[in-house]
From TrEMBL:
Keywords: Kinase, Transferase. The lineage of its organism: Bacteria, Bacillati, Actinomycetota, Actinomycetes, Micromonosporales. The keyword Kinase applies. This is Glucokinase. Belongs to the ROK (NagC/XylR) family. Transmembrane segments: none annotated. One of its GO terms (molecular function) is kinase activity. SUPFAM superfamilies: Actin-like ATPase domain. It comes from the Bacteria. Pfam families: ROK.
């Protein structure tokens, strides 16, 4: 039996990508700027237009979106400020209205985790943790074939685990001391500016580190150590088969420092928990969104 053709959308603050996916393979892909300042309706209109532009005959649409998804209502909560009017949006309803197809929505990093757990670096393993390090730090947990959502949809969001490297440092969530406050891309750039008085972005910090800048090397190593410590805490709690790390701020220098800190903080009884790079690249969230759409279809068949 041929696997169904699915549409997938990955909505970001600056761009929205759409794809046709079958059995975890991306068959066609397109993207366009996200009209974030124009509000939720415009963003979802753009997403629907991208899906239509791909042609084909998908049977369902999966959407990876910034913000949390309330497991009880399916509405977006704790929404990103980068998209206007993004809170309490009914994404599956919007997909149905615009495309006439059943839809599913999940947090974008949980979509990344689902894609990597089922079709990527964690394929075939019982317990997989996904981690995306970028403007923020997000994550997800896939156990025994299920993506954990938690009571409020926030399961796996390890960017808000406390680490000693971040004590006293404000986190974007409003608390202090979380790993995101030292290891996310903007946090690394901010720490470099504190040390040098030179405000530059993360790519420039990385370039300077590779050119021999000691301050740049130090802040990247500190970010990696904090990330490794946070991941070890999660590993100690969940005993995963593998932790998959991706995202634009997961540069080699950060990962190189994360490894030793992770190993040092893990319980010895766990043995070596593999800490591996993501396998699906920029398509991970799209593949995961498609998988969420497929699961929604299958659940509907079971209920009927």
């Amino acid at each position: 039996m041929t696997a169904p053709l699915l549409a997938a959308v990955d909505i970001g603050g600056t761009k929205t990508a759409a794809a046709l996916v079958r059995a975890g393979a991306v068959l066609a892909r397109t993207q366009a700027p996200t009209p974030a300042r124009d509000g939720a309706a415009a963003v979802l209109d753009r997403a629907a237009a991208l899906v239509r532009s791909l042609g084909g005959a998908p049977v369902a649409v999966g959407v990876g979106a910034p913000g949390l998804v309330d497991p009880a209502t399916g509405l977006l909560t704790a929404a990103t400020s980068s998209i206007s009017d993004w809170s309490r949006v009914d994404v599956p309803g919007a997909v149905r209205d615009r495309l006439g197809l059943p839809g599913a929505v999940l947090n974008d990093v949980q979509a990344f985790t689902l894609g990597e757990a089922v079709h990527g670096a964690g394929r075939g393993l019982p317990t997989v943790i996904g981690v995306a390090v970028g403007t923020g730090i997000g994550g997800g947990v896939h156990v025994a074939g299920m993506l954990l959502s938690g009571r409020s949809g926030a399961a796996g969001h390890l960017g808000h685990l406390p680490v000693p490297q971040a004590v006293g440092r404000p986190c974007p969530c409003g608390a202090t001391g979380h790993v995101e406050a030292v290891a996310a891309g903007p946090a690394v750039a901010a720490r470099y500016a504190e040390r040098t008085g030179d405000p530059v972005d993360l790519p420039e910090v990385v370039r300077r580190a590779r050119a021999g800048d000691d301050a740049a090397r130090t802040v990247l190593a500190e970010a990696g150590a904090a990330l490794g410590t946070a991941l070890a805490g999660l590993a100690n709690a969940l005993d995963p088969d593998r932790i998959v790390v991706g995202g634009g701020a997961a540069v080699p220098e950060v990962l190189a420092a994360a490894g030793p800190a992770f190993a040092a903080a893990c319980m010895p009884v766990l043995g070596p928990v593999p800490l591996v790079p993501a396998a699906l690249g920029a398509d991970a969230a799209l593949v995961g969104a498609a998988e969420a759409a497929l699961r929604t279809l299958e659940e509907g068949r079971v209920r009927r």
